[in-house]
């Protein structure tokens, strides 16, 4: 089978393991045969709607249905664009304006919300209607055959510093190679049972979706309401005999802090992987103490890489206060640490973590200038046409050659696993009447965003957040809001962020 499109993984799985359970949520459970059948119907419906080869925005609550739209979009030869079902409508409008999709696939409840939005000529397709479409196998084959592995498979939007989300565009090759890397590294096979935590608009979910397709395993979507009760998650893992989890550290930490791991017996669980932010050893040690003998893995990677580019299998004890390495490059990737003066950093020397390899994104959708700034020719090997992604993360290599993460060089932060550009919050704040200037600062100690406003008015924080909610998702809302007659300025007239940050410490 020619592996030109990631949907070939579904074709292959359905041929090898037609009656094995593939994906399930609270509403339904599909075998690989059914998964393919429904996805093909969705693909057929998209082709009939004239959306072949075009991007499709998937605006649905997290579900197995959503997965069949991802696959269906690939059967129709185009990339899928997953969005949060609770996304603020003005943000959705920005995404639709950037993507110019052929269709927005949704359900009736969400379709109502689309009324009145500028959809840039894209059609609204109801899921139930698509999933009842007739399948023309030959037309689907032709649509998939026309795809090459460097074509986009999905576009995922992340926070952008100017207030406009950036559409990271990943090629099929990135996912095809990642699926192999995941299954080889964690030795997945048909007996693998994965419990998916990550939202589908977050690239961590590709580990679960494509790792399970590659090995013929079973993928369970953890009910979203259950994720609100970390203490119950170990029971869920036990009851479902889950063998592998890949969760964001925030959830791992919450489970550890809930005390639910004390005496937990999870005989089936073999792999515990995490990615997306720093995993503190204090909580990892709670996992390791209560569930010894498992493979614990710290994975690292931004959305601009197909999920992960570095990994560290935790192979020794760490004291609570020790940092955990992010390890080495994945086998299909290379990592270069670039110093400010453009050299490769020496052992122990800090540099910007830059990434080369098949997992690197194609760029930002419809944003050539942004793409050019972040995806650059490798300055160390200018004779080759190698593209390199500059992550903006800082790291050094220790004596053992292991990469150690050291934070960011800009104002991007991570809060409870979400990637946030503080500039996006400032842009949203400036849209509220009465605000003359705004500066968002991250309080590391309290783990919350503090928004400083320059205004003649005094804003009530709760009311102000309701206004902000029109532009930014809930996870970006500031925890504290301080209004001032004038924000402090530096000598060259920029907002004095250092002074504002200092004022947090002074209380
Ligand atoms: P996202 O694009 O949402 O995946 O966020 C990517 C950013 O999260 C990276 O650029 C890092 O700053 C941070 N990050 C991801 N994985 C790790 C990790 N294992 N340890 C520390 N920070 C991480």
**Major beta sheet, strand line-up:** 2-1-10-9-11-12-13-14-15
Largest sheet: 9 strands, mixed
List the total number of helices: 16
List of distinct ligands in this structure:
adenosine monophosphate
Low-pLDDT sequence parts: none
Percentage of residues in helical conformation:
25-40%
Q: Roughly what is the average pLDDT, rounded to an integer?
A: 96
Q: Name the shape in a single word.
A: globular
Radius of gyration: 23 Å
Structural class: alpha/beta
Tags for this entry?
25% strand, alpha/beta, 16 helices, binds adenosine monophosphate, 507 residues, five-stranded antiparallel beta sheet, 31% helix
Description:
With 507 residues, the chain is an alpha/beta fold. It is built from 16 helices and 26 strands. The strands form six sheets. The protein has a nine-stranded mixed β-sheet with strand order 2-1-10-9-11-12-13-14-15. Strands 16, 17, 19, 20 and 21 form a five-stranded antiparallel β-sheet that branches. It has a four-stranded parallel β-sheet with strand order 4-3-5-6, with helices on both faces. Strand 11 (244-247), helix 11 and strand 12 (271-275) form a beta-alpha-beta unit. It is globular, with a radius of gyration of 23 Å. Adenosine monophosphate binds at residues 158, 275-278, 298-300, 302-303, 326, 391, 393, 405, 408, 414, 419. Adenosine monophosphate is lined by residues 158, 275-278, 298-300, 302-303, 326, 391, 393, 405, 408, 414, 419.
């Amino acid at each position: 089978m020619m592996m030109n499109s990631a949907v070939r993984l579904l074709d292959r799985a359905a041929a090898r393991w037609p009656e094995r359970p593939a994906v399930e949520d609270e509403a339904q459970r599909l075998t690989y045969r059914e998964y393919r059948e429904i996805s093909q119907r969705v693909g057929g419906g998209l082709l009939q709607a004239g959306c072949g080869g075009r991007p499709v925005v998937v605006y649905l609550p997290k579900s197995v249905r959503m997965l069949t739209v991802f696959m269906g979009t690939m059967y129709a030869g185009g990339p899928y664009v997953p969005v949060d079902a609770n996304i603020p409508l003005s943000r959705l409008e920005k995404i639709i304006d950037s993507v110019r999709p052929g269709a927005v696939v949704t359900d009736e409840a969400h379709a109502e919300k689309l009324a009145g939005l500028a959809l840039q000529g894209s059609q609204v397709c109801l899921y139930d209607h698509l999933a009842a479409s007739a399948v023309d196998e030959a037309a689907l084959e032709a649509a998939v055959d026309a795809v090459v592995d460097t074509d986009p498979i999905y576009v995922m939007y992340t926070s952008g510093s100017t207030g406009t989300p950036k559409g990271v565009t990943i090629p099929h090759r990135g996912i095809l190679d990642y699926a192999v890397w995941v299954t080889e590294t964690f030795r997945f096979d048909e007996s693998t049972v994965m419990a998916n935590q990550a939202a589908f608009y977050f690239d961590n979910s590709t580990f679960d979706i494509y790792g399970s397709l590659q090995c013929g395993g079973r993928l369970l979507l953890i009910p979203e309401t259950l994720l609100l009760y970390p203490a119950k998650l170990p029971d869920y893992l036990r009851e479902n005999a889950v063998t592998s989890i890949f969760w964001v550290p925030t959830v791992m930490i919450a489970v550890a802090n809930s005390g639910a791991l004390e005496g937990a017996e999870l005989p089936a669980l073999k792999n515990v992987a995490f990615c997306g932010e720093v995993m503190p050893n204090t909580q990892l040690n709670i996992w390791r103490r209560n569930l010894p003998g498992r493979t614990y893995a710290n994975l690292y990677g931004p959305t601009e890489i197909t999920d992960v580019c570095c990994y560290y299998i935790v192979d020794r004890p760490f004291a609570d206060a020790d940092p955990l390495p992010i390890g080495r490059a994945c086998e299909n990737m290379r990592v270069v640490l670039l110093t400010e003066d453009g050299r490769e950093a020496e052992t122990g020397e800090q540099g910007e973590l830059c990434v080369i390899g098949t997992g690197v994104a194609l760029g930002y959708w419809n944003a050539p200038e942004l793409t050019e700034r972040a995806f650059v020719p490798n300055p160390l090997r200018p004779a080759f046409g190698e593209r390199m992604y500059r992550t903006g993360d800082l790291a050094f290599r220790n004596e053992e050659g292991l990469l150690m993460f050291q934070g960011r060089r800009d104002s991007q932060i991570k809060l409870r696993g979400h990637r946030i550009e503080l500039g996006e919050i400032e842009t949203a704040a400036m849209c509220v009447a009465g605000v003359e200037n705004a500066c968002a600062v991250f309080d590391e100690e309290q783990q919350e965003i503090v928004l400083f406003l320059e205004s003649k008015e005094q804003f009530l924080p709760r009311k102000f957040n309701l206004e902000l909610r029109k532009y930014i998702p809930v996870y970006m809302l500031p925890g504290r809001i301080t209004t001032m007659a004038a924000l402090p300025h530096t000598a060259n007239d920029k907002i004095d962020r250092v002074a504002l940050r200092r004022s947090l410490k002074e209380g």
